[in-house]
Please model this.
Amino acid sequence: MTKNQLVMTWLEEMMALTKPDNVVWIDGSEAQLELLRQQSIADGEILKLDQEKLPGCYLHNTAHNDVARVEHRTFICSKHKKDAGPTNNWMAPAQAYEKVGKLFDGAMTGRTMYVIPFIMGPVGSPFSKVGIELSDSIYVVLNMAIMTRVGQCAIDQLGDSSDFVKCLHARKEIDEENRYIMHFPEDNTIWSVNSGYGGNVLLSKKCFALRIASFQGKNEGWLAEHMLILGLENPQGEVKYIAAAFPSACGKTNLAMLIPPEILKGYKVWTIGDDIAWLRIGEDGRLWAINPEAGFFGVAPGTSTKTNPNALATVQSDTIFTNVVLKDDNTVWWEGMDGEVPAHGIDWKGNEWTPASGTPGAHPNSRFTAPAKKCPCISPEWENPQGVPISALVFGGRRAKTAPLVYQAYDWAHGVFVGATMASETTAAASGAVGVVRRDPMAMLPFCGYHMGDYFAHWLEMGENIPNAPKIFHVNWFRLDQNGKFMWPGFGDNMRVLNWIIDRCDGKADAQETAIGYLPKAVDLNMEGLNLPAETVAELLIVDKAVWTAEVASQKEFFKTFEGHLPAEILKQLESLEARLDK
Ligand code: OXD
Ligand code: MN
Model:
């Protein structure tokens, strides 16, 4: 399929290491994918669902010990330990190649190696990058064909260039004790062994599009971020774009596909991406974004017509479900789906299940892999090779008391500080108790492929190079009242906050200056039809000095982690915040 000598040499080396019985190139054709589906069904790896109700849909169950990303077994193998930084596991490249190389030795004997060339980003886009994944799993092939653009298009785009990410995956025995997800940023290489779970084996996603790409972005002057991208259309038909970062499990997919409440008729959200954004400075001095992925690998439980009707519509065809309940009518179900709870089914472990079983039928991290083009609100611009121009960057967290509903950073440097201090709390909603604060700068803590202190510096430097930078905001949908109840309705009503954000970017909305940034006054947000008591609105927009003083102390403690690599600007921002709170 290719004359690229660098590809062929690497492939031969990996074949010599893993010793597969056969090698099959994935060309991206539907005919080949269909043959592989049939093979995978015959192997018992996937199950064909009811093709009338769910055309093109399949179900897969992982091993019981292999259901999520494994951060403690994920390593950044940079030459120098300091380049991985204090928040990543590190192993020296020579040691990692030797240790994990032993696990790959003969790992594909008796199996077939699939060669999956793929593009991250629209075909032919100057933003796009090529990778090749070698895997012995058809499940990986079928998922990659949804999540990325696979096959000949990638080989053509690569030509004879050396700029591709070399990804190697083998299932082996799915042995937890020997599971390794290794990244070699200086070699453009990813090795994953002993897992079959998406987040660990679809190497295009977190491994390439975030960990390796963030390192590439630092060296090449762009950003790879854990952000959704959406377009917000107003009743005049103008569309403005927002990219937003939230820690895992804060509703990114829901926000990316939001449907506004009836009262905001005429506004519409268009989805560009739900998880990852690659951001570059355009010739016009604005920041432009693409979604490098072609599909959604979303969490199934909780997805319903209330929380995300667009996601539910997306997964009605050409979708692979992983670890959900198989119903007796050969369709699927998960906790939190609408309609009746099935009286009987087969749970994600393959056991008979009824509502009385006392255990969830779908694994809490069960997933759907669905093509983005099937989403009813997919933006007409989602495959624009130039990307879309970003008006606002939004950071969010799950905070019970600290962060108000929304505020705007003073400028880019302050916005970087706001992103660097992002955090989520585990909330004991019933008692209203505030849980443990987990800092997750820019939602990138598990995904930054280099030293996070250097990452902050890269963000600050980017700001100096963007003449027409997006404004930066922070949101918190999760504020709790005295009784531990959410004060903000969230979901579609988040549109009210997005509207204020866009209006601020357009210079159309008012705000008040506070110690932490610009906050809307109650009258600046459209609350029509919400029936929120005035005290609740006031409480949602409060900046409590005592709470923030404690927050500053906690931020100070966190930043000690990066000593030696923390940009002076970040400490300056912290001191300024402290001074403003004291005023
Ligand atoms: C994801 C995550 O799966 O962030 O997207 O964990
Ligand atoms: Mn994510």
Summary: The radius of gyration is 24 Å. The longest helix spans residues 204-220. The pocket of oxalic acid (ligand 1) is lined by residues 199, 248, 275 (CB under 6 Å). The chain is about 30% helix and 25% strand.
